[in-house]
């Protein structure tokens, strides 16, 4: 990777589209060179980021695997990483007993195993250097029992908790950890999770990924512990802290059960 003394380096996973791509755009606009990764084509993202003056290297790999993460880090060619946006992740709809376990394991390995492996590798170097910023994409789903999305919500509960714990462990090291917790956002998430026939999949007022990314980027730059993107999501999380778990699970069922888009009134 071409080195420069003028621009810091940011690594962004899940950068082909959605929140990850918007985070990469913000990093480029704020003077970072970029190492971007995804398990989908990155050519378009790379082109748009270069227009902003960033030096960009892309790696297409599966970040559910340690080999995929290692390939991404190898592409930095030893250059110090100043900011890490650990954003790769995906969902999985339908009831748990109806899911193929290979798909279940891929969600866990992407959202949890690959994410924390990447964070550990980069975080160790940041701690050694005495500086660095890490933004981990969690979700407000981590506050809710996710009926018909149980593995995804469980994985995000882990990530939300992990980010806050790691932040505390790194206190006084010069390395900050922030957690971005979006709600329903207008990305490819629901198509990839096979949830387009659900009420939440058909929701028409999904959040703009650019606005969600900006909330996360700003929180990271300010060194804040985390941000719940959007006032509606903040209210939802506040309610989830006091509402009984069975009721939360039933509410989630109404949104995520297959076919619920046809049997419920649509969101407007």
Provide a descriptive summary of the structure in words.
With 268 residues, this protein is α/β, with parallel strands linked by helices. It has a single domain, classed as Rossmann fold, CATH 3.40.50.720. The protein has ten helices and seven strands. A seven-stranded parallel beta sheet has the order 3-2-1-4-5-6-7, with helices on both faces. The longest helix is centred in the middle third of the chain and has 29 residues, at 101-129. It is globular. The termini are far apart.
Secondary-structure blueprint:
Layout: E1 9-13, H1 18-29, E2 33-38, H2 43-51, E3 56-60, H3 66-74, E4 83-86, H4 101-129, E5 132-137, H5 150-169, E6 175-181, H6 189-192, H7 209-222, E7 226-228, H8 231-240, H9 245-256, H10 260-263
Parallel strand pairs: 1-2, 1-4, 2-3, 4-5, 5-6, 6-7
